[in-house]
Amino acid sequence: MGTVYEVGEEFVCIWREKKPFTAKILGIEADGYRIHYKGWNARYDETVKFEDIDARMHKGTLEDYAAKYGVDVTPTKSKKKSMKAATPGAPGSSVEPVDPAVERGAYESHEGTPTSSRASGGRSSKKDKEDSTPYTAVPMVVHLTSPLKKILIDDNVLNNKGYITKIPAKFTIDQIITDYIKTIPVTKDQLQNVDDVVVEYDSRDVSNLALVCTARALVDYFNVIIGSSYHLLYKIEREQFHDVVKQKSKGRNYSVGTVATMPDNGFRASSEYGFIHLLRMMAKLPDLLKLTQWNAHLCNRIMIGVHDFVVFLNKNHAQYYGDRDDYEAKTVEYFQRVLDSEQSAAEGADDQPSTSASTKCK
């Protein structure tokens, strides 16, 4: 075993393209260090084997590495536009170095918080001009089928009766998305390289890779939005969310209040929550997108993929939704905590998610 590192320690790690990036230790496993590249999506977390430490892991900062090895660590400016969201109420973050997936225009979020694309500010590029050309707009509407609408209505009724969904869900959002991607006819090579390509399509041509990127973008967006002003949680579910975060954060250097950085620190809400909360987001997605800084063309692209995903959800809802078996009644002590939290909370605007015109989280 080479140099010893501690959990939480930041260092320089050599990525697969022989590029140095800032990383930190998430944990120590039997065969190596579990690491996270700072500013990257948690999807890129990996385990560096003990035998590879000397070749890939270096103590110090990027500046130290550059001085020692005489290499340029200046982040490469993105030449192509990425599809990134701007989460309402969450500031964007500038991360150095740039995630190579973002350099290539993949759908990724920095520090777990989607930030605005170049279209929201800065100089206009040639690509921006191309995006301004006429195209057939896709309506910002998610058409849910009657079975899916009924699930949301029943969900509202059960919550009003004091029932909340079981956590972790029997079928998590991560599992549902994985199952969906398996139905898309793409090769293994395409899936492995999907983060390294720019997917171009319009309303007349929805490529299979675009559907994959849309699905992954929805997961990333869910992981941020669920903890941002509790857009997808009923009031009686918020204490449960806090409990889950506290449980997962034991031994880590972050708290419940830093929900925007949860994905970067190893906590993925999509690995805990399931079909119900995913469906709530789909029903509310048009309103959420209106609060982002995406331009009309980017929203057009994401909505095309969303429609295909809704078809999948409708076709398979019986598999992922267990009706009342997915819910549980909480204890008197739990509801007392809910009441205490409500009493201590400052009066403000109603931030509860509406699942339909007549269905609103309370």
Automatic annotation (TrEMBL):
Subcellular location(s) per record: Nucleus
Keywords: Chromatin regulator, Nucleus, Transcription, Transcription regulation
Pfam families xrefs: MRG
GO biological process: chromatin organization; regulation of DNA-templated transcription
One GO term describing the cellular component: NuA4 histone acetyltransferase complex
Residue ranges constituting the MRG domain according to the UniProt record: 124-328
Comp. bias (Polar residues): 352-362
Chain spans, region Disordered: 77-133, 343-362
Name of the protein: MRG domain-containing protein
